Amino acid sequence: MATKRSRSRKSSGPQSAADAAAARARAAQEQLLQAAQQVWLAGMGVIARAQKEGPAAFQDAVAEGIKLFGQSGTTAQRRVRDVLEAAQETLQSRVGGAREQAQETWDNLEALFQSRVQRAMHQLGVPTAAEIRELSRRVAELTETVNATARPQRKAAAKRKAPAKRRVAAKRGRRAG
User: Fold this and answer.
1) Of 2, 46, 60, 172, which residue is least crowded by CB atoms under 10 Å?
2) Contact 18, 11 (CB under 8 A)
3) What is the pLDDT of residue 83?
């Protein structure tokens, strides 16, 4: 008999847990059935009200639907406009950034090209703009110096040539006569 008692005790523990789980499942099923019944009854009530109120309820529902549609349309338009404006601003800022980056790259490329051309011209012996300006300045100074020095000599030479011209004219007159 001791064996029977130990078996009954062991079987009573798991049976209690199984019984508790089954009870919870039945309670859940009952709650589910009650909720489904309440939804069914609510639907029946709506149908009864619609039959009772008839076309007036339908017109009210249509009017409210139009009102909600207008509000949602306006809201949707506003949101679409906001999104488009934000996208346009983003696009403009990115295009501006790309434009700045392209300009910077172009400037760097131009500077690199100029430096290489300048180096090649220097290797060929072509003078730089600064060297040409300096040379032009020196030529202008030399021209002024030469002109300043030549003026007194020209005046003296002109005085000496004047009598000689008279002599030649006088000789020609004698020959003609």
Assistant:
1) 2
2) no
3) 85
Give every CB contact of residue 50 below 8 A, 6+ residues apart in sequence. 57, 58
Cβ 122 vs Cβ 128: under 8 Å: yes
DSSP string, 94-139: HHHHHHHHHHHHHHHHHHHHHHHHHHHHHHHTPPPHHHHHHHHHHH
Residue with tokens 């703009």: 129
Report the distance separating Cα 85 and Cα 64, nearest Å. Answer: 31
Q: How does residue 112 score in pLDDT terms, banded at 50, 70 and 90?
A: very high
* High-pLDDT (> 70) share of the chain, %: 78
Euclidean distance between CA atoms 157 and 26, whole angstroms = 142
